[in-house]
Amino acid sequence: MRRPAATALLTVCFHASACFAGPVEPIIAINSNLREIAALQKLTIAGHIDKFTAGQDVVLEGWGKLSSGDGNGGMIQLDTDLPVSRVEVEAVARPDVAGTVGDPGLAYSGFRIRLVLDPAGVPEGYTLCVSTNDPLYGRFRMHDNPKVPCPVQR
User: Fold this and answer.
1) pLDDT confidence tier of residue 3, bands split at 50, 70 and 90
2) Which of 118, 60, 61, 113 is CA-nearest to residue 84?
3) What DSSP string describes 88-153?
4) Rg, the chain, Cα only
5) Which terms are listed as keywords in the entry (predicted)?
6) Whether the Cβ atoms of residue 80 and residue 125 lie closer than 8 Å to each other
7) What is this structure's pTM?
8) 15 forms bridges with which residues in the sheet?
9) Which helix or strand (DSSP H or E) is residue 41 part of?
10) Which among 61, 80, 113, 120 could bridge 128 via Cys, Cβ 3.0 to 4.6 Å?
11) Distance (Å, rounded) from C-alpha 153 to C-alpha 8?
């Protein structure tokens, strides 16, 4: 069943103490209106999808320009036509990124996202573009990854 073209915000709940102790899970926005992909392609690249699996569900692991602490979780936007029914997300410590970039604000810039699909299974010819929008760093798109079709080659 197709979802109407719209943007859905899925906010992950977190405890207030987590804001000060370490990672803050980012907000995930799913945009099924793929007419905006041309503008997305013009964004500066920052971040990387290190691991991608597509089977019954889709799992993305990587890092983006996402600040951490004091409620600065930022947002990861997924522009996709996949039939997403639920999203699971967790912030991941990335001391390697913070050290390489020289920015301690990126200490928890890592993420693991699981897209639960309904119906289960990844259809052929889908599109999945990943970008970040953060209150401190601004908006960026993920480094192109041949396993993540943004935009799909039809």
Assistant:
1) very low
2) 118
3) EEEEE--HHHHHHHT-GGGTT-EEEEEEEESSSSPPTT--EEEEEEETTTEEEEPPP-TTS-SS--
4) 15
5) Signal
6) no
7) 0.80
8) none
9) helix 37-41
10) 80
11) 25
Q: How far is CA 84 from CA 14, 114, 136, in A?
A: 22, 10, 29
Tokens representing 55 are 């089977």
Tokens of residue 100, six digits: 């390489």
- Whether the CB-CB separation of 29 and 8 falls below 8 Å is answered with yes
- DSSP tag of 45: B
| Percent share of the chain, pLDDT over 90 | 57
Q: What is the pLDDT of residues 83-120, one digit of tens each?
A: 999 999 999 999 999 999 999 999 999 999 999 999 99
Scan for tokens 């699909």, then name that residue.
117
Rounded Cα gap, residues 125 and 122, in angstroms: 9
Point out which residues pair with 87 in neighbouring strands: 115
Residue 111 CB contacts under 8 Å (≥ 6 apart), including other chains: 26, 60, 61, 62, 63, 64, 66, 76, 89, 90, 91, 92
Q: How many CB atoms lie within 10 A of CB 146?
A: 6
Measured at the alpha carbon of residue 94, what is the angle toward residues 107 and 37, in degrees to the nearest 5?
Answer: 95
The 8-class DSSP code of residue 25 comes to P
